[in-house]
Structure of Pcd1p:
Amino acid sequence: MKQTAIDALKRLRSFKIKSSVWDDLPYTRRAAVLVTLFRNSGGDLGSILTIRASSLSTFSGQAALPGGKADDINETTYQVARRETHEEIGLTSDDDALRSQGYAMDYLTTLPAYMSRNLLAVQPSIAYLRPINAPSIDDICSEHYNNRIFPHDFYSSFNHKTDLPGIIDSHAFSDSTEVQEVFSVPVNKFLYDNPKYYTGKPVDWGGLTWNQHWFKVIRRHKAIGEVGWLSVWGLTANILVDTAIIGYDQQPAMPHRQKGQFGDEEILRALHELGKLPEERNKKADLNIQFKEVFGKDSPLLSLRSM
């Protein structure tokens, strides 16, 4: 594994948040996603993403991190993320069962909550997926770790056509009603603005402004006649840009947010305190919210998502 990838894992492991509004919201307003990192065939950190099934009522056909809504008030962010990842792409949430398949999942950290277009608090957990014979995150973070050579069969654990861990390819995710494709992207890609693969512009949602990102990802496995690239944008892109910023300790080349500003905790907290995130959801009201009216046209909350 490249030293930059090792350092990124260490930084992510050390990243902590004090608390989150996610824990104070009704469970109907809670969602979680899993940023599953792994050593890809180039020795960098890859992240597993999905294309949502066209049959879904929300965000169909879009690139997304595996995840979904909480089932009850007692589920933690990480439990929701692992359960949904299992349901979507077959990557079991049972650590013992995962080890029996030759892999382990090392928890790294949880990011602040982000606000989705339908006013859910989406909190990302980040974990490191590895073959069980590869160094764990505890090994990597130890003072005696020297990036020793990985076992030979570690390299054969990848599908080099898709650049996904073999365990993902071995599961029939086609049985899922939520996912139509699984793919991977190098995490450090989300720090750069190569015009061949990136476009961005400021956007406005009810008076709330932020920099929107669109990243083109080459499609490594496609049928004849299918489009040759996939688009990662919106909330998914924002989470991955922030993951890259924290991991690689590097600001992105494109306009993003104020340095050190991750997630939408302050906005979500304000909405919660104003009674705008009740347990019973009103989809039409959520989608048509006017933040200028809710917060006031001069509120500093309106610019928290921009630079």
Notes: Residues 3-303 form a domain with the Nucleoside Triphosphate Pyrophosphohydrolase fold (CATH 3.90.79.10).
